[in-house]
Amino acid sequence: MRHADRGRHPVFRQPRGGTGAFRDGRHRVQLSPVARALEVALSASCAGDAPLGVAVSGGGDSVALLLALAGRRVHAVTVDHGLRPGAAAEAQFVAGICARLGLRHDTLRWQGWDGQGNLQDSARRARYRLIADWAAAQGIGRVALGHTRDDQAETVLMRLARGAGVDGLSAMAPRRESLGVTWLRPLLGLSRADLRAYLAERGQGWIEDPSNEDARFDRVQARRTLAALAPLGITAEGLAETAARMGTARAALEAATLEAAGRVAREDRGDVVLSRAGLDALQGEIARRLLVASLCWVASSEYPPRAEALAETLAALGSAPRATLHGCLIARETDDLRIGREPAALAGTVAPAGALWDGRWWLDGPAEPGLEIRALGEGGLAACPDWRATGLPRASLLAAPAVWRGAHLVAAPLAGLCNGWQARLATTLSQRIISH
Prior knowledge:
The chain is an alpha+beta fold.
């Protein structure tokens, strides 16, 4: 698949005038209604003195967010996907704004597109992963994103078209834990028009991504459909309110699932062990949610498995001792189901020592150049004579994180070979239940 905007250039937008009504980090100037709404939203969402990352593309929404956050402990980041000729210039544009505001800024570059599959989805996933790794390296636990009420409404429309349920129609959450980062969306209550009015007050330009006008993209089609539905009273405000109500319903279901997990599930060094009798006694939707959350947590997956695939796997486990699904190995034990990482799914999963591995494992120990984190595997397990004493199944240990120096195993903490290293999880099952 060729990127729709390869060869097309972004458009710079410069608003006229400007009222100068803003907080500049040193003085409070009388705020306009839009600036006041922004400040209220940021105070509620981005409270505290902890460092805050902010993802800035150069578009109007994220530039407005950046300006409104000036004066806080902010470190901006821009991802250059390298897919359009103007991408590098956009990153430089953001860097220039940050230099003027006295804010730190980094540009991350993605070079992973192989021309296969859904480009927008691949780029979005890569963007989150790059920013999460960057945030971890910078000691930043929170990253603010510039999604607006219009983005929320468009997301609801797209998910309606896919037959989404409560989770899908609750759209984007104001706060979400993923990849070891708290992602904040403080602008979901404001519109794009609000933010461009704010930019006009500040006299600040922005860059329009040409893909925002390309009807081959679902979001552009949703945007145009939303405009066409306005005469029927279907508006961005109304759809965003629907998402908020669905979010309330989702929170209630998550709370019930979390309570059920406390009774029928336990974490075992990265695996989830579920009581089969306890799972069978749960209401169907709660049992499904618990299973999906367990699979996604073990696989560090943002997306759930298909409903049909989950049903087929559970049916197969009625007679088979084990089955694979969603990058996980599900095994029947005497009274339980154990969900662990599927060893084969980790082929090629490598991270430098000190980085997050497989989306959820940190390994802490005596660092030295050239060390890597990889799965333990057959060869590594053979070098761990005490692995049986750990009590973990062999299959779980094959998928366990280990420290390697080339072909030499340095440490495998979960398999009893520590050598000064410890393995710890970046998240818990409970966090996965309430954050997706």
